[in-house]
Amino acid sequence: MEYFIQQLINGVTLGSIYGLIAIGYTMVFGIIGMVNFAHGDVFMLSAFIALILLLIFTQILGLGFLSIALFLVLILSMLLTSLWAWAIERLAYRPLRGSFRLAPLISAIGMSIFLANLVQIAQGPRNKPAPTTLTGVFTFGDGTGFTVTLSHRQILIVAVTAVLLAAFWYVVQKTPIGRAQRACEQDRRMAALLGVDVNRTISLTFIMGAALAAVAGLMFLIYYGVVHFNDGFVPGVKAFTAAVLGGIGSLPGAVLGGLLIGLVEAFWSAYFSTDYKDVATFSILVITLVFLPSGLLGRPDVEKV
Amino acid sequence: MPGEGERRLTFAAAVKDAAGTGLLALGLCIPIIAYRTHQDMSNRLVLQERWQFVAFAVLAAFAARLVYLLAPSIALKPAPRLRMGGESGAAVTVFKLVGLVLLFAYPFLTIAMVGPAGAIKWVDNFAIQILIYVMLGWGLNIVVGLAGLLDLGYVAFYAIGAYAFALLSTHYDLGFWVCLPLAGILAAFWGILLGFPVLRLRGDYLAIVTLAFGEIIRLVAINWVDLTRGYAGISGVPRATFFGLPFDDSEEGFAAFFGLEFASIHRTVFLFYVILMMVLVTNWVTLKLRRLPVGRAWEALREDEVACRALGINTTNTKLSAFSLGAMFGGFAGAFYVTSRGQGFVTPESFTFAESALILAIVVLGGLGSQAGVVVAALVLIGGTELLRELDWLKRIFGAEFQPTQYRLLLFGLAMVLVMIWRPRGLISHRMPTVHLRQRRAVRGDLVGEGHG
To answer: Which candidate among A98, A166, B362, B367 keeps its CA 20 to 30 Å from the CA of B127?
Structure first.
């Protein structure tokens, strides 16, 4: 039982990270109908940005308070990652609007290859161990056999995710920006006729997705303590799986999908084998796309000419 | 700004705009370029400042933007259309013949020029490697270029071919010539097997599912240690023989049989002709199929699937035939790879997503659907990479640790983006529908509506 609860905690932590990345996929797909293949690599890039910022604050500026440093790193890496996402959208996706179906996806794949190799060249091909932060744990249990541990970083990850999701939900549901986004999602041309700046709204969508990916990047860094230039690929595909599983285009779906994927991964590793945990996720992706393409919370998509 | 048309700018405005781009580049370079993380002796990360690279990137962005703004006509002028592949003028026929003769003479030309020892590099590293990628490119071209199904897991079939050959020959003691067709058939079978579930998917979803399949196959190859020996890989796969005569210095060897002095170049030259024949057969089959109903159906499927179905074309069979045929050529290439460049050794590391992306880059940059385009793209991308390895003077300019080849995927990725923006039908050549109504129309990507690409 303790083992089960322990895996539940691990799964929820992982799931929060996947959920944060999945929102970027689901929003972009909702608004312009493309799979932003480079999103996983934007996430990886943000983890590197966070790592370097953390080192700048602790080593060069000598900031003693870890909590303040982490907070500043979070804000700055969200800003810098958003800048990257804005530039990518501007350069690689916007000129392709109205091009043939596969053009944006091929462009995104090119961008993904570019980003992964840029980081590899700029930062080297080796694993980068982050300075250890937040090592404290709470321990529950009676001391016989298994005990459940809940580390401070797990609490931080889940709490930050929850707070940011709430803030984000508010932006999408209650503010003019969110209203413009939902309008563009329903009918881009009509929204443009009614005075919504469609290009600006799409840029904003990319920026919001990237900002959340940057949060996920910092959380990934804190949780695993290590980052590698190829780390965008598998978490990216898993987050995309989460977005599809939850129903692509649906925000609560992305979070739900992320949590489910995190739980599946944790329990699969715990009860079956760690070797095949990625195979399990990829199989979920295939099965969902083939048999349940509209996901758990999504609307069925009508095929249009 | 890209895509905003022929707006002429005054010089001052252009400089101002370009300065903005430079500023953006500065923002992007901090901190990912400006600081490099290093592990010191105690395995702790330390930062190293590299502002000179940032300055270079900012200047490059500024200059590129300025040139782009002041010379918009260069970028937007439609490039001259090369009529290759589809056309059959007298000049093209002569060109093809000369090319073929040169190809067949290539090993002997290199031996004559640099001697047998030096020629191995030029035949093996250059010719054989390029031809393998041409074959893979043509195989993928059937799926992506002709049928319009974006396959991101093509390397899976390459892997299946390679593993099929390695396992069959080590477990059942079968020779190369028996295994080669078996590997192709097995890959085609897997193509159908993996093709079935994705039949109802279109566009992006299909691409993602094929990507997942490619990764699953690789992960199984890594983790099914009993069968594939995991990361260690399968070694000692028997090398290709000259129809039963091994390439060694024994009494029954190829050299002794023909009364030649033993040299390792014999095997390389033989393998060159094998892959050349395989490539020519691939091309011949593809060109023939393109004129058959199934080929027409592929192109129709690429242009518009809904219209295709409305016209009564069986999209199931059409997609499956494209998938399995492409997979078969990938399987052939995989089996050949093990016996030639793989040196009888196969590991899952050779079949990563990067490999799929590289093959896709060849097809996309060459021009979706164009046979000649794939050849030129493979020549430039693979041959160019190999040439970069040879250039020592680059090291003298940029320092000893400068490795030009590590930039190749970076450049390929960027090239894929730029090609999609400016020449979505391909950089080198493009393929228009074989059958057309009244007039052939070549349409630029930005004029094509969604779903009609």
So the answer is: B367
